[in-house]
TrEMBL record:
Keyword Phosphoprotein: yes
Domain Response regulatory: 2-116
Protein name: Stage 0 sporulation protein A homolog
Pfam family, any one: Response_reg
Organism of origin: Sulfobacillus benefaciens
Modified residue annotations for 4-aspartylphosphate: D51
């Protein structure tokens, strides 16, 4: 299974990549929403783990663009505490799940298993 990790913080991408590769996932990375949309179109990953707040293009805007290209896309949003309004907006636009930072590794893997099964 291929997962695209989208976060403007390199350390967050690294942390998620380590967790997912240890669990057998193939991982690609993008540093902002615009890059995520481009990489999604090229790679068609099984799932996208995407931060909501990013420069250049927000996670919400990238979610909308990805869902417009592929209505069946599996996108899990990652948000900080206190972003409930954005989380609701993301779910309304087709996000399959959301994870709150700081997250527990088990929560990330459980979300992926739920969305990909």
């Amino acid at each position: 299974m291929r997962v695209l990790i989208v976060d403007d913080a390199a350390f967050m991408r690294l942390r998620l990549k380590k967790l997912l590769t240890q669990d057998g996932y193939e991982v690609e990375e993008a540093g902002n929403g615009q890059e995520a949309v481009e990489k999604y179109g090229a790679l068609h990953p099984d799932c996208v783990l995407m931060d909501i707040t990013m420069p250049e293009m927000s996670g919400i805007d990238a979610l909308k663009a990805i869902k417009a290209e592929d209505p069946g896309a599996n996108v899990i949003m990652v948000s900080a505490l206190g972003q409930q309004a954005m989380v609701i907006q993301a779910i309304q636009h087709g996000a399959r799940d959301f994870i709150v930072k700081p997250y527990e590794p088990e929560r990330v893997l459980a979300s992926l298993n739920k969305v990909l099964s």
